[in-house]
Every structure is written in structure tokens, then in C-alpha cells.
Amino acid sequence: SVSAAFWEHLRHLGLQDFPCGLGSWNKSRFNACTNPCGGQLGLGKDPARQEEAVPLGEESPDVLMELLSDRHSPWALLPDCSPQDQHLRELAVLAPELVHGSNVFQVLRSLRIVGKGVEEVDEGLLQLQQLEELILSTNQISRITSANLPRTLKVLELCCNVVADLQDLCAPPPPELQHLGLGYNRLCGPSEDKYLTAAFWPNLVSLDLSFNNFTDLLGLVSQLSSLQKLRILLLQGNPLALIPTYRGFLVDSLPRLSILDDIHIGPEERHQFQGLARQPELIRSEAQVVVSIGEIKGVPDPSTRQQLEVGSEAPVITYSYCVTYKF
Predict the structure, then answer these.
(1) Dihedrals phi, psi of 306, to nearest 5 degrees
(2) How confident is the model at residue 44, as a pLDDT?
(3) Could you please report the per-residue DSSP string of 70-134?
(4) Residues sharing a CB contact under 8 Å with residue 109, sequence separation 6 or more, in sequence order
(5) Burial (0-12, 13-18, 19+ Cβ within 10 Å), 26
(6) 13: closest CA among 64, 79, 75, 66?
(7) What pLDDT score does 156 carry?
């Protein structure tokens, strides 16, 4: 589940271990004693700005932070870690109580669980009451229930999973969602087209449906046209993208789009395809694929075996070959 992967991720970050967390290396900064000026040395003050001398055997906040940021340090994060991971580790140095136990739920804005074999998005995710970005790419998620998603979400990335049904996700989804990533899944049209409207995604700005199995261009566009805030759309890799008038029809049908399949839509292109949306008869439900073979080795040339002299009564032997392609 996502919750199990989340706790394992926190354990890997080592928020309670040196140089983070509370320990002998920083205990005097977080005790309840009164400092010489009469103030409390607790979490109310920025420990990085406290000017008292560092006791023997302890480390200053600057030194601890350097151990986190120096790429040669044994405590440095791996290069592929997210900015949120680095932020949590810095908090664990400057204010460790903020990321201790369940307190971390209140500070986490982004969660990235990639390639961890997650199959279930469970209700434990609701504890992250401030979560705005959820990245769950390259897992094994087939269904996702909106009831288990924080309502504060603005970004939901599910690329490279096995999602085939959007019904549970749309019952109803987080209302403020701005990006929905569903590329490289198993979505098919027209059964899933009906869930791609403003009735479910009123604030959607970016939508990735690339490399699924959508085939009905007219039906899909009729649903997407209700997304008034949509500016970025990815549909490449679907069978409908093979239709000759695919890009032109989309550009003219969705005038608010700024980027289609990672290519900016300029004024000249929009003018070039003007009026195409009013000619649906040009959309043919078929596509032609041309395969050119540059060179074949190890196969005898049939023509050299069939050159017979004129008037020859010898039997004719015909050679033929079958080449199969899997798309």
C-alpha cells in the first residue's frame, strides 16, 4: 500500500538519526532550560540563529546542515531524491519535533513513491492533510479510490501503472486538482471518455493520457471541450493519434490549448487548421501504416532461382516468405 511505502520512505530518510533528529549531538539546543537572556531554547526560536556557544561534544546547526548538503558527505541524499525529501531532512535538523512521528503529516506537501511495487492507495493517505502533490509513477496500481485521496491535492501523477477504470477515481475526485497524469496505462475509449469532463475536473490545467488505448477522436474531443481551464494535453501513443487529421482537428477543436503532445501551438498553426473542427467527415476511423524494409540478410533471393531459359520444360519452383509484425 501507499502507506507502507510512505513509512518505509521516511525510515530511509533517517529523520531521527544523526545528523537529523534529537540526540547527543544537539541536546542542549532543545532542552527546556532557560537561556541566559530569559528565553526558552525550544522550537519557538530558530536554532540556526542562536548565538550561544556550542557545548563540547555537540555540533552547530550550520555543521549539521553542511553534512546534509555536501554531495560528498555520507549523509547526503541520492541525486534522484525530491526537494521535499531534502526539506524534511533540513527540518529534522533545525526543528526535529516538527517531523517526529505523526507531526510529519502536518508539514508534508509533496509525496513521491516511484517504482516501489505499490498496488493499493489506502485510506492512510488521508492523514496527510496538507498534501498537494502525489507522484505514484511506475507502480502496479489498477484502481484508485478518490475517497482515499486528500482533498487538498493539486497534482496526481499515475504514469506507468495498470489503471483501466476511472470510475472510482471520479467519485468524486479532489476538487482543486490541476494536473492529472495517466500516461502509459490501460485506459480505453469510449467507456472512459465520460469521466474526462469539467463535471469531475473543473480546475484541470494539464492532462496526460498518452500511450493508452483511446480510439474515438470525435467522442474524446466532445468530452475534453468542457475543460475550460485545460492548457496542456498529451494524447500521443494512442491509436487515434494515427489519424491523418489528428493534430489539426484537436488544435481547432480545443482553442484554449497551449501545448499538444509536448509541442507548443502557435498562432500560425492555429490559423492553418482553422475550420477543421467543423468538418468531422474528414476524420476517418482508420489509419495506414507503411513499413519499409531497408535490408534483409540470410534469406535467399527467390528471383535468382526462378530464371529459366525460354522454352524450358523444367518444373517451376516458387519460393515465398511471410514476415509478421507485432504492433
Answers:
(1) -110, 10
(2) 40
(3) -TTSTTPPPTTS-HHHHHHHHHHHH-GGGGSGGGGGGT--EEE--SS------GGGGG-TT--EE
(4) 84, 130, 131, 132, 133
(5) buried
(6) 75
(7) 98
How far is 253 from 112, CA to CA, in rounded Å? 35
Alpha helices in the chain (DSSP H): 2-13, 61-69, 83-94, 217-224, 246-253, 267-272, 302-305
pTM value is 0.73
DSSP-assigned letter for residue 53: P
Query: What are the mean pLDDT values of the chain's consecutive 10-residue runs (327 residues total)?
Result: 86 79 78 44 44 70 79 76 78 78 81 92 91 95 94 97 95 95 93 93 97 93 96 96 91 96 96 90 72 80 60 71 77
Query: Where do we find the cell 540563529?
Result: 49
- List of domains in the chain: 109-278 (3.80.10.10)
Contact 182, 160 (CB under 8 A): no
C-alpha cell at 209: 493520457
Residues in a beta bridge with 264: 259
- Give the per-residue pLDDT at 56: 74
